[in-house]
Amino acid sequence: MAEEAAVRAQGEVVRRLKQDKADPDEIAKEVAKLLEMKAQLGADEGKHKFVLKTPKGTRDYSPKQMAIRERVFNAIITCFKRHGAEVIDTPVFELKDFDIAGQFDPMIPDAECLKIVHEILSDLQLGDFLIKVNDRRILDGMFAVCGVPDSKFRTICSSVDKLDKMPWEEVRSEMVGEKGLSPEAADRIGEYVQLHGGLDLIERLLQDAKLSQNKLAKEGLGDMKLLFEYLTLFGITGKISFDLSLARGLDYYTGVIFEAVLLQQENDHVEEPVSVGSVAGGGRYDGLVGMFDPKGRKVPCVGVSIGIERIFSILEQRVEASEEKIRTTETQVLVASAQKKLLEERLKLISELWDAGIKAEVLYKKNPKLLNQLQYCEDTGIPLVAIVGEQELKDGVVKLRVVATREEVNVRRENLVEEIRMRTRRP
After folding, report:
1. Is the separation of the CB atoms in 9 and 285 below 8 Å?
2. Beta-strand (E) ranges in 317-418?
3. Of all residues in the chain, what percent are helix, strand and coil, respectively (each to 5)?
4. d(CA 14, CA 252)
5. Which tens digit of pLDDT belongs to each residue from 240-298?
6. If we measure between CA atoms, which residue out of 121, 113, 109 comes closest to residue 75?
């Protein structure tokens, strides 16, 4: 994860150089460094064993899978654009990442990143979810006041991060038995890392006799309070939890960290839902970009990464389990005929619709049965059928059928395009 963030940071360097219209040789050098880092990231993954992977972009997807992927991409693109995102033309910046770089007042961009995650997960309707937030400074301060030696901060941190999968007793045993932490220090940590809540918890910790004396912890808690005030204004605190056990990626995060998890009620007897996996994460990494900037410029950054492949997998499994019909095309209307020998009329009409920008289909048969044409719409989810028949041609109308309700109306030929647009317009 740290390596991925470093690659993102190098991408930011390239973007800034392009934006500043720097010397082309300097840009080329930094792009080369970026590509080398990407290659190294891939190489590191295979150091211990060889894994055969399908090269990116060559996997075949079924129409149903592609429809699901497109739905997810559209939801994310729409959300990112709604929040003023710009597309950056470097290989590293992919759709799943949204980063805010620059010197801004505290917690405003951080709050927006959390709002973005909330909007995307709500729009995709993946089920109940929770966004856990914490701050590296709070964790470091907490370890210090609990008596954890500086040399053990990171290793104890990795134990704490397992609390979403293991009970406290097992985590404590690992800290003491495997990592050599004193039982007293472990017990003091246990008093904190099992806490989660909202503004009330933050206020309580700000008054905590030990934490309030630690500069880092106090600083982090102050920013966390400000963050929750902004999240309250955004109206999303019901899905946000300040969780002192969250310790992801602390090697490069410098402030706020967050992780979105899907929740699942195990059974009727369990009151509290359990996490079934992370689908997004991110945080503040103020020190990272400067490490790769040739001019040593410090650029504060906060970003979020959406777990695209995991989301695809969840949605695909859900569709398979429910046998839900997924539309694999955007066809608005099928042009059909009620009698034989009307292929020419169907082709004339569909050409008119195509020229007007209507998404339309026609069955590739000279004389298809009307019932088969209607069944095709049922099977593929096409919402409308435009039916031409001998009487309709005489009257200058087209019979428009709503597949879902089986309602039929006669529409003047010259009004058909507008009628289809009106009936297929999204709310």
Report:
1. yes
2. 333-337, 360-361, 384-388, 397-402, 408-412
3. 50, 15, 35
4. 20
5. 999 999 987 656 788 999 999 998 754 444 455 555 678 999 998 876 655 566 666 67
6. 121
State the average pLDDT over residues 380-393. 94
CA distance 96 to 80: 10
Distance CA 10, CA 35 (A): 10
Name the amino acid, one letter, at 189: I
Give the CA angle between residues 258, 19, 104 to the nearest 5°. Answer: 40
Within 10 Å of residue 84's Cβ, how many Cβ atoms?
8
Query: What pLDDT score does 7 carry?
Result: 59
d(CA 282, CA 307): 11
- Residue 17 has, within 13 A of its CA and on its CB side, a CA count of 26
Q: For the sheet with 196-197, list strands across it.
A: 97-101, 301-306, 274-284, 256-264, 129-135, 240-243, 196-197
- 126 to each of 44, 72, 94, 276, how far by Cα in Å? 32, 11, 22, 12
Q: Is the pLDDT of residue 209 over 50?
A: yes
Whether the pLDDT of residue 54 is over 50: the answer is no
* Helical spans, DSSP H, in 212-342: 215-234, 288-292, 308-322
Tell me which of 363 and 2 has the higher pLDDT.
363
Query: What crossing angle do the helices spanning 63-82 and 108-124 adopt, rounded to 10°?
Result: 150
* Confidence at residue 264, expressed as pLDDT on a 0 to 100 scale: 73
* φ, ψ dihedrals at 276, nearest 5°: -115, 15
What mean pLDDT is predicted for residues 109-125? 94
Tell me what pLDDT residue 313 has: 85
Sheet holding 360-361, edge to edge: 360-361, 333-337, 384-388, 397-402, 408-412
pLDDT band at 71 (very low <50, low <70, confident <90, very high): confident
Of 136, 146, 246, nearest to 190 (Cα)? 146
Residue in 280, 267, 2 with CA at minimum distance from that of residue 115: 280
Distances (CA, A) of 199 to 114, 241, 250: 16, 9, 23
Three-state SS at 167: coil
pLDDT of residue 289: 58
Say which residues have a Cβ less than 8 Å from residue 289's Cβ, sequence separation at least 6: 9, 12, 13, 101, 297, 298, 299, 301
